[in-house]
Amino acid sequence: MQIYKHSQQLRISHKQRLETIKKQTEDFMGSMNKLEEELGKEYTDSIESGLKEEMETLQKKILDDMQQAEMQSVRKKINSLFS
Question: SS3 string of 5-31?
């Protein structure tokens, strides 16, 4: 009888430990998922910001190139008028 009680107590103790480990694992995984979401958002925001800056730079460059091409065209027309 003594062995049976001891065996039962061990099973109860093991079950409680397993439940504690399971709960801690679930909490840990929840925290990890939350962290991944936050880091992912920061990373995405960073990429979007970089792309926005790059697009603005390219737009400015294209506009400058267009203005220079138009100025060259105007210069050629003026030169042809005086030639």
Answer: HHHHHHHHHHHHHHHHHHHHHHHHHHH
Q: Which helix (H) or strand (E) holds 4?
A: helix 2-82
Answer whether residue 4 shows pLDDT above 80.
no
First to last CA, the chain: 121
Checking if the pLDDT of 3 tops 90, the result is no
Question: Residues in the chain, how many?
Answer: 83
Is residue 21 pLDDT above 90, yes or no?
A: yes
Note if the pTM is more than 0.70. Answer: no
3-class DSSP assignment, residue 1: coil
CA pair distance 32, 77, nearest whole angstrom: 67
| CA dihedral angle for residue 24, residue 26, residue 32, residue 35, rounded to 10 degrees | -100
